[in-house]
Fold this protein.
Amino acid sequence: MKIRYFIFNFTQLLKLKQVLINLTTNAFEAIDEGETVTIQVTTEIMGKVCIQVHNGGKPIPPEVLSNLTTPFYTTKSQGNGLGLAIVKRIVEAHDGELSIESSSIVGTQVTVKLPYFPPKT
């Protein structure tokens, strides 16, 4: 196994922590008891770290999927519609990419890709 180093300052780490909190909270809220949420972190050849949060819950309808990162858009009775909007803003502020895919076959997967900078040797 090859270990990679990710260089982020403290403020960036706090924001990335918020991204993970929001994504995992949404993933767990969307599944039934006994189902699982998986988180996978990998690196890509093009100098990016890829974080994927996946659940096998009910698929998100396309008309909802396209609005999920819109501020104040929510399908939850107790939601405020800011969780994924905040995720999108943080990811884009770090020159990253956010994608959300959902289907009845594979469930829902949220992918965050962020550039990383390996230490100079």
